[in-house]
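Ticket #4471: structure output looks truncated?

Reporter: J.K.
Steps to reproduce: submitted the chain below (485 residues) through the standard prediction queue, then opened the result file.
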Amino acid sequence: MSAPMQSHDSVEKPAVDADIVSPAISVLAASIVPEWPRNWKAYAALVSGFFMMFNAWGMVNAYGAFMSLYDEHLLTRSSDLELSLVGSTESFLLLLPSIFAGRLLDARRHYYLGFTGFLLLFLGYLLLSFTGGHGLKDEGQYGLVWLTSGLLAGLGMTCFFTYSSHNVIQWFPRKRYIAAGITSTGAGAGGIIYPLTLKFLVARFGFPTGVRILSAVVGLTTLIAFVLGAPCKDVPRRQVGSVFNFSTWIDKQAFRNKSYTLYVIAVSLVYGGFYSIAFHVTEWAEVKGFGTEEDIPGGTGESPGASGFRTFWFLTIMNGASIIGRLASAMFATHLSNPIVVHTATCFLASLLAFFWWPFAANNAGAIAFCTLFGILGGSMLSLPASGVAYLIPDDRHSHVGQWTGMMWSTVSIFALIGPLIAAELRHEFGMNAVGYWCGAIMLVTTALLAASVWLKRKADKGSTTSTLVGEGEKSGEQTPAMIV
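Returned output as attached by the reporter:
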């Protein structure tokens, strides 16, 4: 007789896991689960997650270099809004389908996502190399650039993004914040390596050949990520069920949780604000006179090798500094056992930088210092959200962590799309300083929302503890401290 079919919410019983069991046995579970995993696949998954982030947010972080290339050479007739739309589309599509990716990860469909991500990302950047004609000035075709690097590559990025954080959190239950922080450094590394590689290859070989070589790098690193990204089998597996069933993709309990709802709104604003500056930092450096553009073969600007600090270095510095922020925030979150407190502090400091440093930087040293500090804070802000969901989710919903994370990212996608577009329009109407004011205002609101989320979480935890103590006291017939008034 065949086994009965499982419903879409059915869950396989896992081995003991300190992060998914109830508080009553969490101490016992913590003593059973080793502090660091002993399975080599866990560390392979860490490498896999690094390369996933390297090619997902790493490429988004590198878009400022692509945008500068389009603006100065291939697509000079396109407006700032149109060029920002390509990068915003990458962010939007990277995040929007996460609601489906997260649920598929809960069902342990990792390899389907990994192979799809590898295929779409490689094809996206390979086809991008055919959108610039012979690489001469104004030979780029905007619609095809958007279609390949915006639409196609963006859909590939989403397969890797939720996968990377979800997988390492499951493999490293007692070191999940540190593991997520290490994985997220891939985004900073990609943001350093890809702009430098793009500049070198295009200056040396021209746009078509240079981008084809770049696509080979993308293909190799995504293939490594796919091969090494084995799922952890010690956690619950929730069968997918009907794809037409609303509850398959949406957990209605999530947005009834007030702290989670506020957190999702806050993270949405973070992405709308941070990338407003990241997409404009090279242009900001040029407008302020902090650096010069290095031209490519067939261009009309600075000749390759001319003296002067290059504007793309400011983006590289910002992305490099983000690695420090990602690792530091992971350590602080582990020490405090609360990633949202760290998130709140970094958002407040970022708002001060955007308000008071971006508009008033007066020289190269000040601009470099801004990019360094904002990069550190940005790395922290962008690396903590998945850990924040793992912190907020109730114990009885831990088998839904992929679904809750995916729902968050899908909501964030809307703000990631429109935030940089609003910044581009503000820059066009009011000048470059308006981008900083826009980001600063967003980060200040975000700070208040994150603080409220932490307060509601602590209030809920306190109420839960009190209810447990009262219940135990009533059963034993004794007064507990919680019952004494």
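Triage note (M.O.): checked the attachment and the full token line is present. The chain has 19 helices and no strands.
Status: closed, working as intended.
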